[in-house]
Amino acid sequence: MYNDKLDVCNKVISNDVLYDILEKMNEKILELNKICQKEKLENANRNYTDQVWTIKDFNGGVRCTFSFSNNTRVTCDKYRDIVAIFNSRLNEISSMVISFSCYYIKKQDGQIKVISDSIVLFVYENSMNINLNISSDNDKIYDVYQFIKDQILSAPERYDRVIKKRSSIINMICFSVGFIPSIIILTLLIFVPTVKMLYETVYILYPIALVIFSFMFGSLLIRFKLLQLYAPLLPNKKYVGYDKETYKSIYKDDIDNYVASAEIIIGKNCNNIKNREKILHLEKKCGSFLPIEIGLIVIFSIVVVFICKILS
Questions:
Q1: CA angle 27-30-34, nearest 5°?
Q2: CB-based contact 133:1 (threshold 8 Å)
Q3: Distance separating alpha carbons of residues 78 and 80, to the nearest angstrom
Q4: Are strands 53-68 and 93-108 parallel, antiparallel or unpaired?
Q5: pLDDT by residue (tens digit) across 203-222?
Q6: Region for 10 from its dihedrals, namely left if φ exceeds 0, alpha if ψ lies in -120 to 50, beta otherwise
Q7: Parallel, antiparallel, or unpaired: how do β-strands 263-264 and 12-13 relate?
């Protein structure tokens, strides 16, 4: 008997993975039922003592109990109904209990064995547990469990680069977005006598101001959007102490609890993968401009000083 329990930690389990698991379970049920019907025909004209069954009197199926955010619950035992609810109400699902079970009789070499096995998935927004109860004599459905296990182990990590490097990602995107308006405004300011005099006196003032203003303008233009994208992805805060100088409590990201849990793309997590993709797209796009922007800082710093001397 294979008895196992698999807890999913620090993984992002997409709705596509859940759908593939449901589909794999249904395919296995259809496959086993087909074998049962085939063997029934093969053994129809044989004496009972001569009959050979790998699957007899098969009874199995996939059953799913959905719990929704409005505190309602629906149980389905037909694959078509399960998939229909899963696809149409994904953003309302707070938890799922998926049961895959099969019962049949195995008769070989005069020996009769009753096989009754199950795989149960407990799926929540921040956790996923799998209970396995498969007979060692049953080589028919272990591949379903292996498929589930492979899908989970190959899933992306929850505490990934998007979370670990969020400060640098946000700052880089803000800088890139605010760069163009900053370089235009600060360059035009050379025609303001006071500013022109400052540029002439302190050569490094222009590049320093350009960097600062790029962050400022970028923060005004896109930081709020980035924080909205990050909001459902971030770890919860935990209390770590009290600052006697500022008279404020100190909170930090609860990384331990974050990596000990999972991120299942149902309910409130429905848009999390899309949010990650949007953040990575912005980072890639803005990152491609960064070398050009650094080059422009150097070029414009020299040009501005040169223009200021001409205007003097």
A1: 140
A2: yes
A3: 6
A4: antiparallel
A5: 788 889 999 999 999 999 99
A6: left
A7: parallel
- Element (H or E) spanning 129, and its range? strand 128-134
Of 51-55, 99-103, 186-190, 282-286, minimum mean pLDDT range = 51-55
Q: Are 235 and 262 in contact (CB under 8 A)?
A: no
The whole-number pLDDT of residue 3 equals 60
DSSP 8-state class, residue 4: E
Domain coordinates of the chain in residue numbers?
Answer: 2-153, 161-232+271-311
Residue range 68-87, pLDDT digits in tens? 999 999 999 999 999 999 99
| Residue 5 pLDDT grade (very low, low, confident, very high; cuts 50, 70, 90) | low
Q: Residue 169: enclosing H or E segment and its boundaries?
A: helix 166-188
Average pLDDT over residues 6-34: 93
Q: How far apart are CA 300 and CA 206, in angstroms?
A: 9
Q: Name which of 114, 113, 131 is nearest 122 in CA terms.
A: 131
- The percent of residues above 70 in pLDDT, for the chain, comes to 96
Contact 183, 296 (CB under 8 A): yes
d(CA 293, CA 278): 22
User: Which positions ≥6 away from 272 have C-beta within 8 Å?
Assistant: 12, 232, 233, 263, 265
Residue among 176, 180, 159, 157 nearest 168 (CA): 176
Distance CA 88, CA 121 (A): 20
CB neighbour class for 118 (10 Å; exposed up to 12, middle 13-18, buried from 19) = middle
